[in-house]
Amino acid sequence: MKPAQIRKDIYWVGAIDWSLRNFHGYTTSRGSTYNAFLVMDEKITLIDTVKNNFKEEMIERISRIVDPAKIDYVISNHVEPDHSGSIPEVMKYCPNAKIVTSAPQGVKGLKAHYGDYNYMPVKGGDSLNIGKHTFQFVQTPMVHWPDNMVTYCPEEKILFSNDAFGQHFASSGRFDIEEDLSIILEEAQKYYANIVMPYSQQAAGAYEVVKTLDIDMIAPSHGIIWTKNIPDILDKYAQWTSGKVEEKAIVVFDSMWHSTERMANAVVQGFIDKKIPVKFYDLKENHRSDIITEVLTSKYIAVGSPTLNNNMLPTVAAFLVYLKGLTPKDRKAFAFGSYGWGGQSIAQVEEQLKECGYDIILDKIRLQYFPTQQQLDEITEKVAAAL
User: Fold this and answer.
1) Given this chain, do its domains 4-242 and 246-386 carry the same CATH topology?
2) Of these residues, 24, 56, 178, 355, which one is catalytic?
3) Is 24 a known active-site residue?
4) pLDDT score of 104 more than 90
């Protein structure tokens, strides 16, 4: 359980969660990290902690550097327990340490979770000097909780960025230069799409503040630390926070007897005929969080379901509820599906897409029983004509 030095007198003392496979309903096939940082100075400072079940791992790493009882400040950028869960354990060692957190929401949230400690509330623009290092605090509410803030150290040009720029990604390396950039960016996109996207407006405001800082290192609360590839992740956040989409499509469906699946293939062909890149997602085989990763940058969404007990299939309903909660805007969409005798599901899917605020570019496509090749060709033509 060794710490990792990221700068002189600054150490990563977090935890690696190699086995994590689900985080709030989104799949984390590459695990995650909970990043905490110890700054050695006249006043010893711990920036964030780790999920409670990794508290011993974090304490052991700290203990290899300094007696945890000597910690003077604990900066809590975010109340959520994967960031703050080990605060009670840390405070057993240093009960007189001050917990620095946002005013008023950070104090309110930490008290609700862990009770009364020696809280030091800070607001945007406040700073804390601990000797050779200064910490400047920037509040970033609703990215993605009301209490969120980031911490900037101007002497080291390090931004401790909380959830912004993070990824659920377990790695033996701590820095972006130690891993495949394409994989890191893929996980950063998935993280943004499934966690931050509902708060893109607030994230855009935080991004504008970040752009004004002189940064050599971005140390998020999850995943790797950005150094060489900071321009790459900043470019991605510029795109994602803007809400701009690309001329590409996703087709999402579930099927009982392959009829809706055949319709989905016909829909895909319609996009191909218009030379629009398209991806095909069977909900039996693809998790909704992976699909949402593509929704983030896709202009078109087609959703299909057969009818089961007068309703859409539960997998489709779950996907649409998840989609609606993440609120991606300015998409073009339509519904399709097969049925035996009722056929209510297709209208239900279309209604859910309308409730998401999407522009319905094609009236719902309904086919009874097994579609003929002629009917499938007609679907392809309809889709292409609507684009």
Assistant:
1) no
2) 24
3) yes
4) yes
